[in-house]
What does this fold into?
Amino acid sequence: MADMVLDQVTKRYPDGTLAVDKLSLNIADGEFVILVGPSGCGKSTTLNMLAGLEDITEGELRIGGKVVNDESPKDRDIAMVFQSYALYPHMTVRENMGFALKLAKTPKAVINEKVNNAAQSLGLTDLLDRKPANLSGGQQQRVAMGRAIVRNPAAFLMDEPLSNLDAKLRVQMRLEVSKLQKRLGATMVYVTHDQTEALTLGDRVAVLRGGVLQQAAAPQELYERPLNLFVAGFIGSPSMNFMSGTVDGGTLHTALGDMPVSGALRQELSKASREVIVGIRPENFQDPSLVSADARPHGITFHATIDVLESLGAEKYVYFNKDLGKTNYVTELEELARDAGRADSGATSETVVARLDPATRISEGDNTQLWADVRSLHVFDPATGRNLSVAAGTKASAAGHGAATPSAGQPTSGQTRSGTASQ
Amino acid sequence: MAVTTRQKAGWGTANTVAILIVAIPILWLVSLSFKTPGAITDPSFWPAQWTWGNYSGILTSSTFVRPLLNSIGIGLIATLIAVVFASMAAYAVARLAFPGKRLLVAGALLISLFPQISLVTPLYNIERSLSLFNTWPGLIIPYIAFGLPMAVYILAAFFQQIPWQLEKAAKVDGATPWQAFTKVIAPLASPGMVTSAILVFMFCWNEFLFAISLTSTISARTAPAALAFFSGSSQFTTPTGPIAAAAVVITIPIIIFVSVFQRRIVSGLTSGAVKG
It folds into this structure.
């Protein structure tokens, strides 16, 4: 096993397209890092550069302390699992799994032993003499994993390995990947466009947009302290609600009502423009009748007509419309909407989603009161997309997470680049 | 859609007519090859008296056996070289972006459509001055030149069907580009290689124009050309029987090839048309 360091790595294609822009990321030995972002964000290109399947235009890539920019894939000692599995159709499962070892001129007996061990741990023993065409999708996926495990490589690279599986199998395999990584203590870099997969699997998640690293942090940190508008909107499902707001001294005017701001955030806001974007996560809304008396003063109450109510048993989602002031919505939000398929679904961005306690009596069509927790507010600068509330440190409760992440220096580098992101 | 009896009958008649048109000349040739010299002009379709005489005659005479060996040798060598080079060229055409790729593909197409007759005289002069005239290489080289474009086209279609990720997987598994090609890509493209090999071999086997123009003795003359030099037992007899027998002998390998590899040839020619 080994660590991997990406130092200002840039990929520019011959036609001038900038796929990855000065990406810096330290992946510690044994760490499970997820690269996540919408399609075209450069995550797969980054993985291919790690594997040596694509040249690095600028910057340096070090694996186990050794610069490997010009090394061919076979000299990097890394294994890769592909989205399509890329099993060799003319070889049996056994030959597929042993192919790398055979190329490395490993003695036959050793290959057999390693293949048998890996097959046993993945439950593939009975399938060893079959051809890939005679396996189900889940089995093919396991063979692809097995082919990587057998080699005992310095690092594993996974390119959306679960996206061809059906939903149920995907959840199951997600758990297995997680267990596998822990058992092997392997350095693993995993690419996905699915933020749920990213949050559930990774020790650390790196969010990319347009080839630029937005933020790399532990899942909880990413969720609680997103450094910019893009990360805030991308991470979390349903995603954060955004609305425009106007700062007036100690008050923040929004479509939901006036919210008091205090302390550091107030100072930070006074430096920025008067117009801001306010973000509230769905779970920061509540049925006022279920809010305890101590908590009530920390939020505001407003009126809304419930459009749609979805009851999921453990939680209820309510959707209501508000004129949220779309004028200063920035490109990040448009991109997020496009990626989520919302842009052409006809749904307006004026819809607000709230996650309520299942005990709520609110029903569809009600004109009712809702309560929003002002303490969990995110305030963004519309010009740069920067999260001003994180900058102000008002989310101090979450600050401890940052220090605990394997590479505490990383969020800073993401932060310095968040300005570039919104240009 | 139900097929009515009338439709069935209609198609059946059409098929029978088509098969007869194709088969009668061949059957006539077979019949001739079994006729005795005296019965050649006999108008009956099947010989009254069957004889192996024509076959034993040609198979014991060096004027046919040597050209037959030439045909096999020249055909196999030209096919082998053409397919090996074509698979490399087709791989580049299918996989790599390189300057002049369109030119190469267009050039290959142009060569395969080039009228051979216009090349015969220049080739004759060139080969005579290079002492290639009337030698095996003298035929093998032009055959490769005409066989390559066809093989490149067929193989490029095959390579394009092979998922790119398989090659990436092989590289990550530690294969050199050559190993990735020989151990992963080439085995998967083997149906295409077989198809193109058969087609190139058939081209070499049937070729007549170069064979007759660029040879002067049986040391390099191929079987189809040799037929034209058959002579009768006397100055006044036409060697119809031996020619028919030789034609049948030449046809046999093609019939065997096609019936064994029929499916592969069809799938090779239509590859790329539908997803395999």
In short: Chain B is about 75% helix and 0% strand.
